[in-house]
Amino acid sequence: MTEKQPPRARKLPKQSRSLFTVHAIQQACLKILDEEGAGKLTTQRIADVAGVNIASLYQYFPSKEAILADVYDKTMEELAEQASQRFREFNRLSNHSLSDTLAKIIDLECEQLLALLKLDPDFFREYQHSFDIHRYINELTQLQNNPSWQAWLEPFLVKHQCKGNPRFRGRLIEQTLQGNLRQALIEQADLLADPEFREELLQLLLAYLQ
To answer: Which keywords describe this protein according to UniProt (predicted)?
Structure first.
């Protein structure tokens, strides 16, 4: 079954004036979400805060959901760039400690989901498959000539003498972590910010690997 996709912008801006208008709309959307909450988000409110005519807004976006999708895309880019900048830190840590490295990975994954959920919880839950930050970061790291998650994880497990086949273990570790995070996101999102929940996730992974 094809997953429901979020509405998208009508057209991409090319001229400087159009770029300015779309940027103002994006920033207005973020401002409303941050200061007033998702319940106050409407196309008219976005246009008012952006200082643009509602007709100008509709030139580029058919609905507030399309604006949200655009804002989520930009936020994903920012989160992915932040994560890629931490790759060396993770790589250095991975030489010394299995537990500490996995704990940092869990923290990062939880913080990214919380950042995306905070913008508009209902929208993100409905379209989370379209804003898979884990997949997005994996693709970005490879574009930057860094290894994929799986290519990095397998030698990491070998280095720390984890039992079993590292290829299968790596895949199951990824599926276990992502599955638990997604379930928490759907059922009880506040768990993602709970240090005890993160610790239990860490112990689950360590028990399997050791």
So the answer is: DNA-binding, Transcription, Transcription regulation
Distance CA 150, CA 112 (A): 19
Do 177 and 102 have their domain in common? yes
Rounded-to-integer distance, Cα 196 and Cα 126, Å: 27
**What is the C-alpha to C-alpha distance for residues 206 and 60, in angstroms, rounded to an integer?**
49
Segments of the chain with pLDDT less than 70:
1-2
Instruction: Render 146-198 in DSSP notation, one character per residue.
Output: PPPHHHHHHHHHHHTT-SS-HHHHHHHHHHHHHHHHHHHHHH-GGGGG-HHHH
| Residue 112 lies in domain | 72-209
Q: Do 122 and 30 share a structural domain? A: no
What are the E-state strand segments in the chain? none
* 40 Cα distance to chain centroid: 23
Residues 55 and 84 in one domain: no
CA 4 to each of CA 7, 19, 64, 127, 197: distance values in angstroms, whole numbers, following the listed order: 9, 28, 17, 7, 30
Alpha-carbon distances of 104 from 26, 91, 141, 158, rounded to whole Å: 31, 11, 17, 19
Mention every residue, 6+ apart, whose C-beta is less than 8 A from residue 104.
Answer: 89, 90, 93
Domain count, the chain: 2
Query: pLDDT by residue (tens digit) across 85-101?
Result: 888 788 889 999 999 99
CATH number at residue 44: 1.10.10.60
